[in-house]
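Bench log, entry 3. Co-assembly request; chain sequences pasted below exactly as received.
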Amino acid sequence: MNYQYQDYQLVQDHIVQTPVISNADLDKELKAQLFFKCENLQCTGSFKYRGAMYALLKLDAGSRAKGVVTVSSGNHGAALARAGQTLGIQVTVIVPKDINPVKLNNIQQYSAEIIFADSGMQGRQEALAQFFSCQQALFIPPYNHHDIVFGQASSAYELIEQQPDLDYLIVPIGGGGLASGSILAAQTFNSRLKVVGAEPANADDAFQSMLTGKLIEHNNPDTVCDGLKASLGDLTFPIIRDGIEDIMLVSEQDIIAAMKYLHQKLKMLIEPSSAIVYAAVLKHKQRFENKKVGLILSGGNLDLEKFYSDC
Amino acid sequence: MNYQYQDYQLVQDHIVQTPVISNADLDKELKAQLFFKCENLQCTGSFKYRGAMYALLKLDAGSRAKGVVTVSSGNHGAALARAGQTLGIQVTVIVPKDINPVKLNNIQQYSAEIIFADSGMQGRQEALAQFFSCQQALFIPPYNHHDIVFGQASSAYELIEQQPDLDYLIVPIGGGGLASGSILAAQTFNSRLKVVGAEPANADDAFQSMLTGKLIEHNNPDTVCDGLKASLGDLTFPIIRDGIEDIMLVSEQDIIAAMKYLHQKLKMLIEPSSAIVYAAVLKHKQRFENKKVGLILSGGNLDLEKFYSDC
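Structure output for the full assembly:
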């Protein structure tokens, strides 16, 4: 797959060109130059809006009229709902019955249709099947989809434009949409840029897949990174296998510490699934010494009161 | 006093040109266009760095060699320490004995000398007197000082450049350094811009001073806005009296609600002393309808764990 400037142009006027933030104290501590790409400041508070918007903009008029459906209780659900609302496309989101009210509200505020399904993969599949038996909407999955990957690529593309001389780019790995998109953008626009993935040690399916050379799936792993529970798909796995420099595993404890530290230092809300990129750099400090390192802060959707009473 | 472009040029290369953030959801709710000037992303996490840097840059070589001293347990102390570290000027900060360890660490990390004083105004004055009996350092107060006010003016100056057609500018009022600086910048660079102050109802010395026409001081008022406990000084009061459009009082409850809401919506850390500007706009919604409103988010220094377990 070949990511080109016209792919960026498709979404350019529909997304926030997110700022890149540096912090002299962090640079000093790490003896490196860090460039944080703030997708927490993206529309709907995460990079997922880029992929959702790209996927909907690619639809022809007939498909737009039929509407779209997805399965997501998190950032992809909210992003697709909002992109649909903006473009006038009906969006249905299938969510688990026990969804947290903050997340439900994030989706509902963008006037999406909600269908409650039993928890777990099977419950969702049943709900999807039932939905499709009476509707003709198109299914837009959260990451294992060409257009989603090409939409997510726009973040790394912008960062490469904003900071052309990066040595490394660190991205979180969940289902692999952001990681694959970043690899594709780097291949076209900065071929010496090394893309490194950061993955929770408790949800290390991508790491295991790389190790064994075949796609390994984990079912609902236990990690504070709710955005990184998904496993790679058959589209994202080969892109990552062939294009990634390394995958770094990070403990839950280090992820939480990084998140709290970035709150205090960067003055921004960063969800655990994003803070993991900084935790990875901190853990492998020597490797990044004197390097220019881009880090995608993938999102900032977080129930602060719950987080700070739990952790 | 007349704020000019060369006053901005003095600090320009030493400070962060902070970004301006908009949010479509907030604009829709308020039927206005809001432009948030992010001083939480300033060096040391608050606008105070602007004034501290301006004041130190104005010193001649002789004064620089003698060092400076201030009394502040908060953002001004950390800002002056950091500015001094950058310019190679010795900084001493007098802090109360019972200072919170997070704040102490904020100051100490910039290698300032610390002197612990008994709490309250008298304890600080004694410590200052003792200090001056053996040292020749210059005292740099937190707000009631020409150079501090001129430094703080740089934030409003940048915002006027970034968004030239603003109708209103909302700033928090504590000692009045930021408010006075903003008024002076508006007078020179956008004379139709109306500057409005937001002040905690629990610390309404500026409001009372405006009402009575004379400078009224409050001693350690009880508000969650620790940056807004100070009273106006004899330099800042007349500038505010003659130049401010209005002062809006805000309850503690509304300040806390605004802070939590901005965390969720803007994905940024904003201390209560900053969130007050949004609370003021929300309370006087009709007045700002269809207007372009700038809001200075003055800082993001906050002990999150303490805040979310207390409030």
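The beta strands of chain A are 20-21, 33-38, 68-71, 91-96, 113-117, 138-139, 168-172, 194-200, 246-250, 292-297. Chain A is about 50% helix and 15% strand.
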